[in-house]
Structures are given as structure tokens and as C-alpha cells.
């Protein structure tokens, strides 16, 4: 990315920081719940076999696969991490019938620190087909000088 490794890391961290800030802001707007794993959550090191949960402390980045000494299950590092993160998200999630997405009235009265601004029209399946991004609805009046 950049020649300066420390600067590249700072830029990358800032990008992810902004990304997660947007996720935290937008999740309640759409009635979803954002589940974040702690930075030090051992997603790759914890055995994802149900009922086991053994944590292999000496797992290094170079170890792409490992066998759990407690249950004998062989794990691919990335698949194991994905299974552990999926379990974290589903075990900490609320039941399916949680609160609905926020309505316009709820947004108008919510104290979330943001400003609600009106939009010209809502996205419809027809408007999503337009790649130009220009409004295609309604009659437009042209100036007589054109």
C-alpha cells in the first residue's frame, strides 16, 4: 500500500474504524443488531467442535491447520474462526421476533445525535435498474430557453 509500514497501518486502521463506526450507526436504523467480537477473542485458537471449546494458546499465524488435543478434531484455521464467530453472533443474538425496524415516527422522535433529512423519493425496483443514478420519475419542465 505505502512504503512506510507504520503509515500504511494507520491508514488501514482508520479505514476500518470508519467502516465500523458506520455499521454501529446504521444497524439500529434498519432494525438489526451488530455483534462485535472482542479484539482478543480467540476465534482461530478455540476449537469450534460443539461441547469442546479448547483454546490452543501456541497457535501461530503460520499454522494453517491444527488438531485439537482435547477432542481430536482437525481444523482449518479460517473455517474454524468463521465457525467460532458464527457461534458468537448466534449465541449472543436476541430471538428472531425482536423489535421492528424504526419507523419514520420513531426516527423523528429518537435522540440518536443525528439529523434526519427528507429524500426526494424512495428506492423502488424500477429505480434500481437505472445505472445513471438520475431520477426517472415524474414530468420534468424544461426552460423555454433550451
UniProtKB/TrEMBL annotation:
**Assigned keywords, A-Z:** DNA-binding
Spell out the Pfam families in the cross-references. Answer: Cas12f1-like_TNB (PF07282)
Positions of the Cas12f1-like TNB domain: 16-85
Basic and acidic residues bias located where? 137-146
From which residue to which does any coiled coil extend? none
Where is the segment annotated Disordered? 121-146
- Respond yes or no to whether keyword Transferase is given for this record: no
* GO terms assigned for molecular function: DNA binding
- Protein name from the UniProt record: Transcriptional antiterminator
Lineage of this protein's species? Answer: Bacteria, Bacillati, Bacillota, Clostridia, Eubacteriales
Amino acid at each position: 500500500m505505502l512504503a512506510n509500514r507504520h503509515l500504511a497501518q494507520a491508514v488501514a486502521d482508520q479505514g476500518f474504524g470508519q467502516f465500523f463506526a458506520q455499521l454501529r450507526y446504521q444497524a439500529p436504523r434498519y432494525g438489526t443488531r451488530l455483534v462485535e467480537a472482542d479484539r482478543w477473542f480467540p476465534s482461530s485458537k478455540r476449537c469450534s467442535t460443539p461441547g469442546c471449546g479448547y483454546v490452543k494458546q501456541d497457535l501461530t499465524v503460520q499454522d494453517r491447520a491444527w488438531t485439537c488435543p482435547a477432542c481430536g478434531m482437525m481444523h482449518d484455521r479460517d473455517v474454524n474462526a468463521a465457525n467460532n464467530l458464527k457461534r458468537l453472533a448466534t449465541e449472543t443474538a436476541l430471538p428472531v421476533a425482536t423489535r421492528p425496524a424504526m419507523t419514520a415516527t420513531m426516527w423523528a422522535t429518537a435522540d440518536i445525535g443525528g439529523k434526519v433529512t427528507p429524500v426526494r423519493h424512495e428506492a423502488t425496483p424500477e429505480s434500481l435498474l437505472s445505472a445513471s443514478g438520475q431520477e426517472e420519475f415524474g414530468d420534468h419542465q424544461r426552460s423555454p430557453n433550451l
